[in-house]
Amino acid sequence: MAFSLRDAPIRRKLVVVIFLTSVMAMLLMGGTLFVYEYMSFRQATLAQFSSLAKIIAANNTAALAFQNQEDAQEMLGTLKAEPLVTAASLYREDGNLFATYPATLPLDAIPAKAETRRLRFSGTRLTGFEPVIQRDKHLGTLYLHVETAPVVARWVRVSIVVAGAIIAAILLVTYLFSRALQKRLSDPILALANTARAVSEHGDYTVRATKHSRDEVGTLTDAFNHMLIQIHGQDRALRESEGRVRAVINSALSAVIVMDAKGMIADWNARAESMFGWSRAEALGRKLGDTIVPARYRERHERGMDHYLATGDGPVLNRSMEMSALRRNGTEFPVEISISPLKTDNVITFCGFITDITERKRIEEVRARLVSIVESSEDAIIGNTLDGTITSWNRGAEKIFGYAPAEAIGQPLSILTPPESRENDPEILRRISRGENIDHFDAVRVTKDGGRLDVSVSLSPIKDENSRVVGASSIARDITAHKHAQEEIQRLNQELEQRVTQRTAQLEAVNRELEAFSYSVSHDLRAPLRHVDGFAGLLAKHANTTLDEKGRRYLTTISGAARQMGRLIDDLLSFSRMGRAQIKTVPVDQNAMVATVIRETRTDENVSRIEWVVSSLPTVQADPAMLRQVWFNLIDNAVKYSGKNARPRIEIGSQDAQASEVEVQGEQIFFVRDNGVGFDMTYVEKLFGVFQRLHGPAEFEGTGIGLANVRRIINRHGGRAWAEGRIGEGATFYFSLPTSPLPPSSL
Amino acid sequence: MPDLRPILLAEDSPNDVELIVTALRDARLVNEIAITHDGEQALDWLFRRGAHAGRTSPEPAVVLLDLKMPKVDGREVLRRIRADQNLRLIPVVVLTSSREEQDLFETYNLGANAYLVKPVDFEAFISAVGKLGVFWALLNEPPPDPRKA
Q: Among A183, A204, A185, which residue's Cα sits nearest to residue A195?
């Protein structure tokens, strides 16, 4: 019953409680009333029978006084009216029995002697003695024995019936009343309970219980609502906090992965999603080993976890490691991972922070490469702080200066500077600290063994990420050998210059001599010739009549030879002048020039015979007088050597360098072609020699200077002159001029 | 013929002297031909000193001057003539074997009146020197003699 009451609904509990309480109250009250009524009843009975005893006693005074037993007997007999008195007796003054009621009463039913004990209850029996007194004279004693049991029984019966009826009525009322009351009591509580259920079921902490009264339930409702407010606040704070934590985790640059003890993924942040290609929803519940651990590491991964779970010890825990991770697409990439075990309520989870270090690895590689470049450099590459302390020292520096890295690092740069130039160091460091680069200055440095080196130094500032200059790097190249070489070059240059000066002086001297020679030739060699011819002439005049034919022929020969030599000398002088004269190039219209030259070489004899084929010629840059000499010599030759042909034909034109057999870029080629006697190609180079001729003067007159002059002039213009020919088939003379004229040479 | 002034010939080569004289005579010139064989003699003659201190003849109608001579060369003689107050106006014709531009430039610059390259050809030589003599000694009106004026 008690058990069932505990689980009984509150309304029944209320009814039961009220009912029981009422019953208890009723019983207590009924009991009390009963006892009280009973006591009152006994008192009243006692009082009633005490009064009766006094009356009986008073009525028996005479009987006693007179010792009249009959009277006494009679008097006692009146007690018949009182059925409750079952026995009565009267004792004499001396205490001996005097009379009894009923008269037949056995003697053992009453006390034998009078006593002083007053009338009192003993159980339902009321017994006692009442003295019989007359005028203060003790006459005897009355004994009464009242049997109240029937009365009591009847009274109890009536009482119980009455009380039962009353209690039943009251209980009925109470029940009805409590039923009405419990509704008022339990409904707010049930409402509260429903609210609480709604809150717990929906997690909605904004719901509030309605307060119906200001009693304890009202207080409870208030407390409940207050609690809800607090819970709501805490819930919100908790949510916010969790949201913040989640946001932090999701915005972390590292992938954050939580894994339970079975190796299942329990959490997976946004970075993990992008890093590995698994969404959070896809990753949760999968085994970590199946997602991001490359196949070849999976076994080790499992073993490691088992080992930790068994021993609580894991070599990979609580520290950073670099390893390979697997993306969903199967590619691997380097990561840095740190795993911490979390123990909450005896449940172990692992929290892993994973950073993609592809870029870092790349930078490390680049850095390693740079380091190896620096290390393998033949140049000394030295890092130093702004106060000049050496912070790095490559192999080149070791090789050049002799200090091992351990010896140099931490030392001041000034260990490399010779004492006399140390005062420059602070200025250099000041310039570096202003961010300046100092490029390639030559300096002297001291090696470990005290030797001096010539070095070329470049300094540049080293800046931190805020562009603040924090040090300098200096690159020093040993240029001792270079310097020696440079000095050697300088020495050789000087020597060469000296030699050139000497040679120039020599050349100038030779030139002067040549000039003097030319002058001498022109002046002194011609004089005797003139004399030979002059006196031969005088002789011819003087001895004209006396000389015979033979003598006159001799004189003519002497004169002819002298004049020929005069021509040779003139030609030689002109050739020499051609070599020395200044070239002044201007644009030259060759068409006009060639036309003029052709006109000049025409004679009455050849004018009608020669067939001229002249193409249009381009304008060129040349010295006009000299170029005219070239055209004149070539055309004059062509006229001369084709003269013996019945139908002489002279062709003048130009051709592209590309069409030529002798192909040289950037030149224009001109030619003069005749159908004359031609020449043997064996002697082609002789053609251009001074006074070199392939024909005797008897065949064709001339000194043999013309083509030498052509070649000299063309050479001085930066071009070439050459010839092609066959005996009896004519000859072609070519010359070329550069399209961009060379500076005039002094050939 | 008091009007005929002498011709001064300064020429170191006796062959040339002979040829020139022949040429001048062939041209029928009758002027006195004073012959000097180097620059010094020519200057002595011109300045009437040394061997020619007592020369009384008038100043020459023309000086025929070879450039290349021993002791004092033709250029120096020309320079002295042009530097002298009395002689500076006398016509000077340079007779030379040289056709060098530099010589031409130099002698004209010093004040030569004409420049003749002696031809090798005998006929040409006789003709040229003869014409030259006729022109300067006969046709050309010489500047007045400053001392007579």
A: A204
Q: How buried is residue A440: exposed, middle or buried, by Cβ count under 10 Å (0-12/13-18/19+)?
A: exposed
ipTM above 0.90, yes or no: no
Contacts of B126-132 spanning 24+ positions with Cβ under 8 A? B126/A537, B126/B19, B126/B22, B126/B23, B126/B26, B127/B23, B128/B23, B129/B19, B129/B20, B129/B23, B129/B24, B129/B27, B129/B95, B130/B23, B130/B24, B130/B26, B130/B27, B131/B27, B132/B64, B132/B93
Q: Which positions in chain A touch B125 (Cβ < 8 Å)?
A: 530, 533-534
Comparing alpha-carbon positions, the chain B residue that sits nearest to A539 is B122
- Selecting from B19, B98, B123 the residue whose C-beta is nearest the C-beta of A519 gives B98
**Which residues in chain B have Cβ-Cβ distances shorter than 8 Å to A518?**
100
| CB–CB contact B122 A536 (8 Å) | yes
Count chain A–chain B contacts defined by CB atoms under 8 A. Answer: 61
Of the candidates A522, A607, A537, A531, the one whose C-alpha atom is nearest the C-alpha of residue A571 is A522
Task: Name which of A526, A533, A563 is nearest B97 (Cβ-Cβ).
Answer: A526
DSSP A389: B
Gap between the Cα atoms of A191 and A228, Å rounded: 15
Residues of B engaging A, defined by a Cβ cutoff of 8 Å: 13, 15-16, 19, 22, 67-68, 96-100, 118-123, 125-126
| A334 within 8 A of A323, measured Cβ to Cβ | yes
CA distance A364 to A359: 8
pLDDT tens digits for A172-185? 887 788 777 777 77
Whether the pLDDT of residue B114 is over 80: the answer is yes
Sign of CA dihedral B5, B11, B15, B16: negative
CB contact at 8 A, B81 and B47: no
pLDDT band, very low/low/confident/very high, at B102 (cuts 50, 70, 90)? confident
Collect all residues with Cβ–Cβ distance below 8 Å to A300 and sequence separation of at least 6: none
Can you say how many angstroms the Cα of residue A289 is from the centroid of all Cα atoms in its chain?
A: 27
